[in-house]
Specification:
TIM Barrel; globular; alpha/beta; 11% strand
Length: 337
Amino acid sequence: MNCTCGRRHLLLSGAAAALFGAAGAQAAGKPRRIDVHHHIVPPVWLEALKASKQSNPIIEGWTPAKSLEDMDKAGITTAMVSPTTPQVGFLPAAEAARVARASNEWALKMATDHPGRFGVFAMLPMPYVQESLAEIAYAFDTLKVDGIGMMTNYGDKWLGYDEFVPVFQELNRRKAVVYTHPTGANCCVNLVKGVSDAAVEYGADTTRTITNLIFSGASAKCPDISFIFSHGGGVLAAVAERLRIQMVTTPPYKGKFTREMVDHELKRFFYDTAQVSNEVTIQAVAKLVGVSQIVFGTDYPYRTGAEHVAGLKQRFSPPDLVRIDSGNVLRILRKGF
């Protein structure tokens, strides 16, 4: 699907309106809350999910109006949107590229229809490298998206694997924001009878990809990518000591990595509050990496914005809440939401 001149004019007009709306809100002194973990369901993507029997009632019941309603109840100014797991890696390369392209165009049209309310983290046809490079170019150069939304793994490959080096080199060149969301890996689906992957495995997989990015050297080679990890980094707070001490003092990483190197990467990544704002996890993350690296996220439509706002208010001071709600993420977003 190619953009016409009229469509380009629409996109430019929408971007201008979004900037004007954000500027107006700031001038009026209204608080801003930016949700970096907010899921949408482009129709073409939903069709692909249904055809492969991977849909569910929550996904099928989503609408833009429901997102806006939840955002308004929680005082969320802008939601940075992306489809959730499994995105499009289950499709053949050409079909994955088609669905990703159409989904990204649909997401941007939704954003232009609601100026200032939505930003777009574009979906890539990963794990297909050449197709993903083409979509990166289109997403940033034509659609002018705000970042990229990725899965933590693609079947049996995590983000620091050599196969994905060209993708991350290009994203680093573009100084991109890369938001990640967990998904089940080939090795680890339906591990425990009666326990969904989302309950435990998703948190573990987020931490797997963080660990892989660091100890493969991939994140250090891409210092200009701003990584955002879902759910407070998964189980990161629970295993951080192993990464900072045990892994750097035993083979094969002894002499190759230091605690300072690991801490540098951990403390430059960003971690969202989705699914962790009502318990102890987010406070552990704040102690590990600092409030400056925490960004607001809700996991809508699986959770509500209001419950995350309420949970965070019980655990952080008003100045820290301002940073979490919008200040921290505005340091890395290019547009002035």
